[in-house]
Specification:
The structure is a single chain. The chain is of the alpha+beta class and about 190 residues long. It is flat and about 50 Å long. Strands 1, 2, 3, 4 and 5 form a 5-stranded mixed β-sheet that branches. Strands 6-7 form a two-stranded antiparallel ribbon. A hairpin with a 2-residue loop joins β3 and β4. α2 crosses α3 and α2 crosses α4. The chain has a domain of about 90 residues.
Length: about 190
């Protein structure tokens, strides 16, 4: 048949989910308005985030859920099976740790890195309420508070200010009143 194209599931996954190359896709199914992608990590070994040692023993396995970038106007939820490892280095403060997938997961995050980046872009461009309305149209609904929290967590690059420090004003809450300050007066953000 002319124009007929045959594509394998692996090729389709590579096109639709290129950011999932580091994990094994076990199942993709639709549940309501959400596409659920069941995945598992493929790395044979992990690395302790504190000391860098390769662990020899697996502590346990668990399923982690991450919101991911929407596909075809539908929310995507990654259900990722990950391992917890024992850190065998006696000098290390960490006893156990969960493996992370570089470029996809971060500790304690419930959103994939790509979605987080997109939400930060929306927050920068539109702010709270308008951004929240826009994310609903993009099939990755978040609240205005979440967008504002993402804005506040972003580092401030003072070289982005035009006209020098005297022309750039930043506002932040100081006690119960508003306080305007130049970038030099802004207190450093606690890490």
């Amino acid at each position: 048949m002319p124009g007929h194209c045959s594509v394998s599931i692996m090729e389709l996954s590579a096109v639709v989910f290129p950011h999932l190359a580091a994990v094994r896709i076990e199942r993709v199914h639709r549940m309501g308005a959400t596409v659920r992608v069941k995945t598992a990590t493929m790395e044979p070994k992990g690395e302790c985030p504190a000391c860098g040692c390769e662990p020899m023993r697996v502590h346990s396995r668990y399923e982690r859920s991450l919101a991911d970038l929407p596909v075809a106007g539908q929310e995507v939820l990654l259900q990722m099976r990950v391992r917890r490892f024992f850190c065998d280095n006696t000098a290390c403060a960490k006893r156990t740790f969960a493996e992370q997938v570089p470029g996809l997961t971060s500790r304690h995050r419930r959103r994939a890195s790509g979605l987080l980046s997109m939400l930060r872009t929306v927050a920068l461009a539109l702010g709270g309420r308008p951004g929240a309305r826009h994310t609903a149209r993009l099939a990755c609904t978040v609240s205005r508070s979440t967008l504002l929290r993402l804005l506040r967590s972003m580092p401030v690059n003072h070289s982005d200010f035009r006209g020098g420090p005297e022309a750039s004003i930043i506002c932040w809450r100081k006690g119960e009143r508003r306080h305007d300050a130049s970038p030099e007066e802004v207190p450093p953000r606690a890490s």
